[in-house]
Amino acid sequence: MYTQSFNVPDSPGLKSVPLAPSTESAESQARFDNKIDADGKIEPQDWMPDAYRKTLVRQISQHAHSEIVGMLPEGNWISRAPSLKRKAILIAKVQDEGGHGLYLYSAAETLGTSRDQMLEGLHSGKAKYSSIFNYPTLNWADMGVVGWLVDGAAIMNQIPLCRCSYGPYARAMIRVCKEESFHQRQGYEALLVMMQGTAEQKAMVQDAVNRWWWKCLAMFGPPDADSPHSAQAMRWGIKRISNDDLRQKFVDATVPQAKVLGVTLPDPDLKWNEERQHHDYGQIDWDEFWSTVNGNGPCNKERLATRVKAHNDGQWVRNAALAYSRKQQTQATKEAA
Ligand SMILES: [Fe+2]
Ligand SMILES: [Fe+2]
Question: Region annotation Disordered: residue ranges (predicted)?
Answer without folding.
Answer: 1-40
